[in-house]
Amino acid sequence: MIADESLMDFLDESVSWMRARLDGFVPEVAVILGSGFGPVARAVQNPRIVPFAELPHMGSSSATGHVGQFVAGDLGDKRVLVMEGRLHGYEGYSAQEVAFPVWLMARLGAKVLVTTNAAGAINEGYRVGDFCVMADHINLTGRNPLTGKAPDALSPRFLSMLDAYDPALRRLFLGNAAELSVPCQEGVYLGLLGPSFETPAEIRAFRTLGADTVAMSVCEEVIAARHLGMRVLGVSLVSNMACGIEGANPSDDEVHEVAHGRVEDFTQLLQAFLKGL
Ligand code: HPA
Questions:
Q1: Which of 35, 196, 197 most suits a substitution to test ligand 1, by most atoms within 8 Å of the C-beta?
Q2: What is the mean pLDDT of the chain?
Q3: Distance separating alpha carbons of residues 10 and 19, to the nearest angstrom
Q4: Residue 153 and residue 147: Cα distance in Å, rounded?
């Protein structure tokens, strides 16, 4: 458990521990692989693996299909530090605990964060299997990792969220998708705490708020990344239509099955994106 007063010490300790464990490896890009995206980590060359549970002060991942390990190595001509799996608020982790590995990867040197998840589509023009670049988010988790005193000591807490999802990185990824003929949308992502799925009434309400996709992760990570100045790309895979759309009734199994089938395309896309960075 990370208490506000222990955050800075825990972070310093974890940064030193990880540096030593990875022989001074300095990542250029941090990547978070969400539901179903985990196997993308197998494409990392010269991989070095650190289970979340070994890192001091880091929680372990209990979500289905989230292996829960860091993979450091080379991908698409960049040095990457990949999280194969993530921590979610719905697992009982605080916003700061969810943000902790993002702050850690930033402190280790990563200047860019690529974060991914499976999401339900609220926009009826989207199709299951499409990717969707996040243009912006609506944080309805009710939480923010910058509350409390410690994050303000790390970096000022009144953070601008204008262009939180970097416009140039979005353009680059959309260009890669067009070149590879992979269907990719661009839309507003709405993040919730979960773990129950939404009601059809909530989905209708979220549509009027301007959301195109919905899931249970990402917002807290992106706030933490921007807090330490990382440039962010967020990509969802549309694993299902949101509850009530065309009779959809999403389940965890469906989410994983669909995401699994899109791993190869995403691996290619990510490699092209990293080369173009
Ligand atoms: N709702 C919330 N989270 C999700 C969904 C959804 O429809 N699909 C994948 N993650």
A1: 197
A2: 95
A3: 14
A4: 11
Lookup: tokens for 241: 């239509």
Helices (H), 180-249: 200-209, 219-227
173 C-alpha vs ligand 1 centroid, how far in Å? 22
Rounded Cα distance, 260 and 169, in Å: 24
Q: Any idea how long the chain is?
A: 277
Could you report the per-residue pLDDT of 63-77, keeping only the tens digit for each?
A: 776 789 999 999 999
Q: 143-152: buried (b, 16+ CB within 10 Å) or exposed (e) per residue? A: bbbbebebbe
Buried b (16+ CB within 10 A) or exposed e, 226-265: bbbebbbbbbbbbbbbbbbbeebebeeebbbebbbebbeb
The distance of Cα 53 from the centroid of its chain, to the nearest Å, equals 19
Q: Mind listing the pLDDT tens digit for each residue in 195-245?
A: 999 999 999 999 999 999 999 999 999 999 999 999 999 999 999 999 999
Helix ranges (H only) for the chain are 7-21, 95-107, 150-154, 167-179, 200-209, 219-227, 252-260, 263-276
Ligand 1 binding pocket (C-beta < 6 A) is 118-120, 197-198, 214-216, 239-240, 242, 250, 255
CA dist 229 and 106 (Å) reads: 8
Cα 191–chain centre separation: 11
Span from the CA of 8 to the centroid of ligand 1 (angstroms)? 33
Which residue has the CA at smallest separation from atom 3 of ligand 1?
215
Taking CA atoms, 62 is separated from 68, 99, 244, in Å, by: 8, 16, 28
Q: Which residues contact 90 (CB under 8 A, 6 or more apart)?
A: 193, 194, 195, 216
DSSP string, 43-88: G-EEEEEEEGGGSTT-----STT---EEEEEEETTEEEEEEES---
